[in-house]
Amino acid sequence: MIQAFITLRVLDILDIVLVAALLYQVYQWIKSSVAINIFVGIFAIYLFWLLVKALKMHLLTTILGQFMGVGVIALIIVFQQEIRRFFLHIGTKYFSKNSKFFIDYLRTGNVFSSIYTEEIIKACNAMSKTKTGALIVLSKKSELSSYTETGDYINSEINSNLIENIFFKNSPLHDGAMIIVRNKIVAVRCTLPINNDVKLASNYGMRHISAMSMNYQTNAMVITVSEETGKISYVWEGELITINSDKEFKRIFKSDF
After folding, report:
1. Is residue 86 part of a domain?
2. How far apart, in whole angstroms, are the C-alpha atoms of residue 256 and residue 237?
3. How far apart, in whole angstroms, are the C-alpha atoms of residue 31 and residue 198?
């Protein structure tokens, strides 16, 4: 009786599917950054190590084995930004939505009031017409304290006239970003991070790069108004998207940022 060379269980199939899904998610997170080249290089070294090990080339196996031994630590150092963003995504997109234990706490005050939504849209439309540059960070959950500390606290209700006056070119507070947490303008003139991995077309400036970098590091929604074109855009889940209508503008506030 000839037995099958490989015995495949249902759990083995599940194991393969889960690993494939995990690798696909990792690829999706790093494909647009220089980290993809590092990942490919490390993976190539790993395959080479398996080859020399199978060929019993002891010296190379020992050298590469030492390298692979510290591989996990090296990966954490090299991919620290990607790992941080990955866990932010998991915690925001899955944990907060599906956890029955924390769901009430996490969603208390997490939804922007429709009144304040209208105020933000009204201000952005007005600034778009006058080509007044603006950078607005929106967060429903995280206080973003490490970023609000770089600016000036105002802790004010959301008001379209206030937003326009803050970003007015001659205003002492117009430079930098406005951070809105839930239904409050917490701080203005805030400094946002710049991530060197962010690559945009030449027609986008530092305001858009800052918006992409902020979303990359915190998973917050960021709205921009271009000083050159007056176009309103928003950054969410690593994408820079132009807003073409108030209907589309209102829809972005339903995202779980």
Report:
1. no
2. 10
3. 12
Both tokens of 213, joined, read 């970098």
Whether 97 has a pLDDT exceeding 50, the answer reads no
Whether 168 maps to a domain, the answer reads yes
Identify the pLDDT of residue 173. 86
pLDDT in tens, 132-168: 999 999 988 778 888 898 999 999 999 999 999 999 9
pTM greater than the 0.70 cutoff: no
> Per this entry, what is the length of the chain?
257
What is the CATH number for 129? Answer: 3.40.1700.10
Angle between helix axes 10-30 and 35-54 (nearest 10 degrees) is 140
Provide the terminal-to-terminal Cα distance of the chain, rounded to the nearest Å.
60
- What is the residue range of 171's domain? 114-252
Residue at a domain's end among 29, 51, 78: 78
Distance CA 86, CA 149 (A): 25
Q: Which two tokens stand for residue 5?
A: 């060379």
Q: Which pairs count as long-range contacts for 246-254, CB under 8 Å and 24+ apart, including other chains?
A: 246/121, 246/125, 249/121, 249/124, 250/117, 250/121, 252/221, 253/112, 253/117, 253/138
